[in-house]
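Tokens for chain A. Residues wanted.
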């Protein structure tokens, strides 16, 4: 007399996804900064116009 238990479906699917989303590789040396010649506190990473006086931003060196 063999009394064996029914097959237990131990489907423990533990998925540990350790995905490091390190796609932010901002290691570019050619990073330019733009600023206003009248307002040095205005700094932008792209060309545009000064929000204070409307002057064209110049490339900072
Ligand atoms: Zn300005």
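Reply:
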């Amino acid at each position: 007399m063999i009394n064996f238990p029914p097959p237990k479906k131990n489907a423990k699917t533990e998925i540990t996804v350790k995905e490091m989303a390190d796609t932010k590789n901002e290691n570019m040396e050619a990073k330019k900064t733009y600023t206003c010649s009248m307002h040095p506190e205005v700094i932008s990473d792209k060309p545009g116009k000064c929000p204070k006086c409307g002057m064209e931003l110049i490339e900072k060196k």
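Strands lie at 33-35, 43-44, 58-60. The chain has a mean pLDDT of 80.
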